[in-house]
């Protein structure tokens, strides 16, 4: 019988193997966390667990069209006074804010989702944000 097959060497070998596996697992977890953090800093979307509930169907395009038709087109549904009362600013100032925010923040730019559908427009996002701040409300609360 060789010395490598003694019970103490088998125990030592399996302990070293477990130690190696644990060390390798920890290194992989740290690498995964670093990559995930870098993706978040870069503004990339991170895959999430697929839920069993299908996503809510929202009429993003129709909502954008209605917002523009009601407040920002040539044939307005609501005049300047209604706009000023609802948004607490002039239409010109609102459009300037939307343009400035859109040019400085990637979040407020309209992007495609993983399925290739366009997301909410900058007008919709800014309208939502301004209303939340003005009313002090939290979305989905």
From TrEMBL:
Organism: Artemisia annua (Sweet wormwood)
Lineage, highest ranks first: Eukaryota, Viridiplantae, Streptophyta, Embryophyta, Tracheophyta
Protein name: Harbinger transposase-derived protein
Source organism superkingdom: Eukaryota
């Amino acid at each position: 019988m060789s010395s490598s097959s003694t019970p103490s060497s088998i125990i030592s070998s399996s302990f070293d193997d477990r130690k190696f596996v644990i060390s390798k697992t920890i290194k992989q977890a740290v690498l995964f966390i670093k990559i995930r953090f870098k993706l978040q800093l870069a503004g990339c979307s991170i895959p999430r667990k697929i839920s069993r509930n299908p996503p809510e169907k929202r009429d993003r395009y129709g909502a954008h069209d209605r917002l523009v038709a009601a407040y920002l087109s040539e044939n307005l549904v609501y005049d300047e006074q209604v706009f000023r009362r609802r948004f607490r600013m002039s239409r010109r100032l609102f459009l300037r804010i939307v343009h400035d925010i859109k040019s400085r923040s990637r979040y407020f730019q309209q992007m495609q989702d993983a399925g290739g559908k366009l997301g909410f427009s900058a007008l919709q996002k800014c309208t939502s944000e301004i209303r939340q701040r003005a009313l002090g409300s939290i979305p989905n609360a």
